[in-house]
Amino acid sequence: MLEKTILKMNHKSFGQIVVLGSANYVPFMQLNAGERRGVVEDLLDIQIFSVMNSLLKDKINQNKSDIREAEYQIELIEQKIELTQKHIESLQSNNDGLIAAKEGMIEDLQQQIDDTFRHIEALNKNIAELSAHIADADAVARFAPVNPVAPASASERKGAPIRAAAVAKLS
Questions:
Q1: Which alpha helices (DSSP H) does the chain contain, by range?
Q2: For the segment 7-21, what is each residue's pLDDT rounded down to a tens digit?
Q3: Cβ contacts of residue 157 below 8 Å, gap of 6+?
Q4: CB contact at 8 A, 13 and 43
Q5: pLDDT category, 122, cuts 50, 70, 90?
Q6: What's the domain count of the chain?
Q7: Cα Rg for the chain, rounded, in angstroms?
Q8: Which domain range does residue 38 map to?
Q9: Which one of 62, 149, 155, 163 is least enclosed by Cβ atoms within 10 Å?
Q10: Higher pLDDT residue, 138 or 95?
Q11: Residue 34 placed within a domain
């Protein structure tokens, strides 16, 4: 501790600088890169730069990791967007097909309704005509006396049951 406060260097740096003639002395240039850096930092009192360098390397690694994670998340989101767009297109095409089918069904049903109305009109017209015939037959039946005597001619005999059936139908 004393060497750090007074001399501003650690024991190893002191040994490298001051004790040059000892047997365990390793020349400066034969030290590995980390040890040389340590000696120079101790001599110049710049250890803070090594600490800052270490912190910055950690921060760079963390940022690289964050970037990789963000790129992964972006890729996932892009895939989700692509899948959602394909799903929307699929739903739209299905929807268009269903709309076309429903419009076709509506046209067919409208045609059936129109045909049914025409048929109802024809039946109402037929009913009106038949009602008019019935009214005519009723009027004729009111004024025509019922003759219990059999018709004289053969043609009148043939037509009598037909007229009787027609009058019965109309009543």
A1: 2, 11-17, 33-44, 47-143, 154-170
A2: 667 777 766 666 655
A3: 150, 151
A4: yes
A5: very high
A6: 1
A7: 58
A8: 1-45
A9: 149
A10: 95
A11: yes
